[in-house]
Design a protein that fits this description.
This protein is of the alpha/beta class. The protein has ten helices and ten strands. It binds adenosine-5'-diphosphate and magnesium ion (MG).
Length: about 270
């Protein structure tokens, strides 16, 4: 997708309602169990094109597990998931015509650990899936990789291997790699939590730029200020449930539920 979509938070109410209905990802009543343990409990989340949703909550509350359902890295036990009009999960079952490779090309993901290939340079890491998954020529892939490394501020590191890059640089390479498949949406699972604050900052700046460019994102994060400033909505999860979802100021400054208040009093 090349067209720049204005982020929802920059629209007034009227403009906002005009884009209503352009739901990119619709998760309904998603549940996930590991053995007898239900860790995600009937969670709903609809994400509009260009919207940024931050998921916050205590460790072990099911944030990562829920997030991974969106690209079917985690198959839900029940619920319905529709991505860009395509049914991915219906009543907890994956329709046989669901194309998972296509789905994962549409939905990029970045993890806390960067998972770069250590024997490849930064630019080779970004090239790789463009060639193998999209069938781009080497030269087209390379041109796109350099464009993306420039976008994340790492043109100068193109020929450097991950071990010789800082954690913040490695995460930015991982973001460039995910963007190289031209995803419609990005899932980010605590992309800064393995980083020192000053290195986390440069990754957050890249994420903010992505949000401003109109990228649809679901971001699991402990960075409350970032969530407040960048997200259109914040969802608070606890014990596998979506306890509360709303505009950042409301959820962070005037939470409705006691469980949310309790969590925020410790971290914010
Ligand atoms: P969060 O991201 O909010 O910290 P997770 O989604 O990682 O929470 O985990 C939710 C719960 O599910 C935790 O109790 C965790 O131990 C459990 N869990 C996560 N992944 C697995 C797995 N593959 N097998 C068994 N239990 C798991
Ligand atoms: Mg997690």
């Amino acid at each position: 997708r090349n067209g720049v979509v204005t982020p929802l938070r920059k629209l007034d109410r009227q403009q906002r309602s005009a884009v209503e209905g352009r739901v990119l990802a619709d998760a309904r009543q998603i549940s996930v169990s590991f053995g007898p343990l239900e860790v995600v409990k009937q969670v709903d989340l609809s994400v509009h094109k260009g919207e940024v949703v931050a998921i916050i909550g205590p460790s072990g509350s099911g944030k990562s597990t829920f997030l991974r359902c969106f690209n079917y890295l985690q198959p839900p036990a029940s619920g319905t998931l529709i991505i860009d009009g395509q049914v991915v999960v219906d009543g907890g079952r994956k329709p046989s015509n669901t194309d998972l490779l296509k789905l994962r090309r549409k939905i990029g993901m970045c993890f806390q650990s960067f998972n770069l290939f250590p024997h490849l340079t930064a630019v080779e890491n970004v090239d790789l899936a463009q060639i193998s998954a999209l069938g781009r020529s080497k030269s087209d892939a390379r041109a796109r990789s350099m464009e993306l490394l420039k976008r994340v501020g790492l043109e100068a590191k193109a020929g450097t291997k991950p071990a010789h890059c800082s954690g913040g640089q490695q995460q930015r390479i991982a973001i460039a790699r995910a963007l190289a498949l031209d995803p419609d949406m990005m899932l980010m699972d605590e992309p800064t939590s393995a980083l020192d604050p000053e290195l986390g900052h440069e990754v957050l700046a890249v994420m903010r730029e992505l949000a401003d460019s109109g990228m649809t994102m679901i971001i699991v994060t402990h960075e409350m200020r970032f969530a407040e400033n960048v997200a259109d909505r914040i969802m608070f999860m606890a014990d596998g449930k979506a306890v509360e979802i709303g505009e950042p100021r409301q959820v962070l400054r005037a939470p409705i539920h006691e469980r949310t208040q309790q969590f925020l009093s410790m971290v914010f």
